[in-house]
Amino acid sequence: MRSIVLVGIKHCGKSTLGKGLAKALKYPFIDSDAELEKTFFLDSGSRCSTREIFKILGEEKFREFEAQVIRSLISPEPRVIALGGGAVDNPFLGDEALHQLGFILWLDTADEIAYKRILKNGLPPFLAEAEDPALQFTLINNKRRLSFARTADAVFKIDIELEKSAAVTGLLALLEGKIS
Asked: Over the stretch 30-68, which tens digit does the pLDDT of each residue have?
């Protein structure tokens, strides 16, 4: 059995659907951002969110650190892994390293759905400073979609808000025969 690696834009559902998928498959669930925060704490003694770590390290050092953490997740044990939204564009990771993690499944969520979810939690710094945050979000996602399309082994489109159980059922159907 192979691990399943969920990729997609911020708030596309990687963690929520990843947990549901992991439960259905009886796989452990791993969130790369949570692993990044845990590793940062072990290295520095400081408990920080991924956003705070990004601010502390700056983009280049953050991406190096992120790549190190993601590479540490490569394992023969099957799991469901949710990657941070920018991991596929990380210059310190290549597609080969990402594919060593497992079967890459892109949650291709409509911008409007993901942006509404972001607004519930408050704008992250990279959007809060933008003149038009919604436009900035769309521009970033259009660029990343090229990376997701290049990297993904399969695509699960989310054009409408789905109930978690319906989405997990759809993911399981998509994955049938592809991860064994």
From this structure: 999 999 999 999 999 999 998 899 889 998 999 999 999
Domains of the chain: residue spans and CATH: 4-175 (3.40.50.300)
Long-range contacts of 88-92 (CB under 8 A, 24+ apart): 88/7, 88/144, 88/147, 88/148, 88/150, 88/151, 89/143, 89/144, 89/147, 90/63, 90/66, 91/63, 92/63, 92/64, 92/66, 92/67
Residue 22 to residues 77, 102, 121, Cα–Cα distance (Å): 13, 14, 24
Give, in degrees to the nearest 5, the angle at Cα 65 between 59 and 69.
Answer: 140
Task: Provide the b/e sequence for 71-107 (b: ≥16 CB within 10 Å).
Answer: eebeeeebbbbbbbbbbbebeebeeeebeebbbbbbb
Q: What is the Cα–Cα distance from 41 to 23, expressed in whole angstroms?
A: 27
* The model's pTM: 0.90
The closest alpha carbon to 158, from 112, 118, 120, 103, belongs to 112
Other beta carbons within 10 angstroms of residue 118's beta carbon come to 17
Q: Rounded to an integer, what distance in angstroms lies between the CA atom of residue 15 and that of residue 167?
A: 13
Residue with tokens 């521009």, as numbered in its chain: 139
For 111-137, what is each residue's pLDDT tens digit? 888 888 888 877 777 787 888 988 988
